[in-house]
Amino acid sequence: MKTQVEDLQNYLTDASNMPGGHAERLFVPETVDEVADVLREANEAGASVTISGARTGTVGGAVPFGGWVVSLERLNKIKSIDKAALKAVVEPGVVLADLQKAVEAEGLYYPPDPTEWSCQIGGTVATNASGARSFKYGSTREFVSALTVVLADGDVLKLGRGEVFSNADGRVELTTESGKKISAKVPTYKRPNVRKNVSGYFNETPLDAIDLFIGSEGTLGVIAEIELRLVPKPEGFFSGVVFFEKHGDLLGFVDEVKAASRGNALTDVRASANGGNALTDVRASASLVEYFDDRALSFIREKFPETPEAMAGAVYFEQETTAETEDALFEAWNEMLERHSADIDRSWFTTTDADREKLRAFRHALPVAVNEHVVRNKQRKIGTDMAVPDENFAGFLKFQKEMLDASGIDYVIFGHIGDCHLHANLLPKTDEEATRSRHIYGRFVAQSIMLGGCVSAEHGIGKLKSKYLYVAMGERYLNEMAELKKAFDPKGIFGRGNMFDAKFV
After folding, report:
1. What is the DSSP code (8-state) at residue 235?
2. Would residue 473 count as lying in a domain?
3. Which domain holds residue 31?
4. What CATH number is attached to the domain comprising 111?
5. pLDDT < 50 positions in the chain
6. What DSSP string describes 292-346?
7. Model pTM?
8. Are 342 and 249 spatial neighbours (Cβ–Cβ below 8 Å)?
9. Count: domains in the chain
10. Read out DSSP for 140-174?
11. Which of 231, 259, 285 is the last residue of a domain?
């Protein structure tokens, strides 16, 4: 245990830069038993507990406002990688990049790829993290097959996928390792018809009990061990960054890529899970489809001067290949690009690992350039994270760009266009622009809700977006979420202020 200010300082903020964090105690346990001991003591004392990992989250979830911080950084072992069974067992403090390297050395592949590769696996499970490859593979949830969770009173739950489901009354009945019975009512809200959504507790009918904890943002328990599903490592990749002079051509290209890829992607994932080779089809089937608007390209040009000018936008895509399919797939993509008037001559393509890493660096250079710009202005960026249904996406993007252009505030738009989920980053230069930016963000939230979308597609709710979750759900459903939380955490010690206001619990 540590209580000195200098020991706590690094644990009082996360990537959101939310100010005001403070705590009384810091614990860095090294075993599940030590986690349980700390929680038992906190629960008896009624002390709030904030779970801390790599603190790469952008919504203030790891920022404590009083109470105790429990950091999982020393629970960082990759306990096993089973090549035959296509699974790995890890502790929550394992860094994502380290896991991906370890499984790839075994000829395997762990697809989830949040932008921040230094994040920890426990955090990706707690937030149901996704990223670019979710277009084909889905979010972290799709790869979690078992969890060990320590509850607020120090008791332990072991959950395997497919073992316990909600009953006809919508309740999940669980038994802890000590024999205690827990009955929790699953919230009844209807989830938006979007491909990505981390706005509140997951629900479906019937609900697999393990899914209650995936995406629960540290409010139900401490994830202490994780079993992950793996897939065989793809033999090769064909990647491209493609530039368009007309935005309508870009959107048409994306629509065709999505139409060609859907169905193929699910078939590929299922075949890979069974150890088969799914890449015998020579139809275009992207694993990721990313977007950059014209302003984003201007930002990237600072670090990649070879980026062509006078472009309306660009799309970064990736397709998994084999030696047998590579040539035919290249032709299939080339035909699509020609149909939609892409500037093929000035676009970039590769099938080599080294050049593929350069294209990934191009994608990741944008957030870095944006953050540098923000620092120069001595303001904080205001970034959106909404997703809307396919049929409303083009209209929502048009609405955003028109409002941003009219505002005169600097901005860039980029992100996961294949999932109808983009990040509009507003970059205010003055306090007055910062105030207007927050108002614009609120307008975007309202528009997303009106169009059947969600308020957070991948970053989560944390503390910064709880008011928007309230707008989207209202008191009835927040009370249902609170009742679920009380079943596992009766004193409400976990993650106070995360997802919903403390008044609900």
Report:
1. S
2. no
3. 5-71
4. 3.30.465.10
5. 265-280
6. EEHHHHHHHTTT-TTSPSS-SEEEEEEEEE-TTTHHHHHHHHHHHHHHTT--GGG
7. 0.92
8. yes
9. 3
10. GGGGEEEEEEE-TTS-EEEEETTT-B--TTSEEEE
11. 231
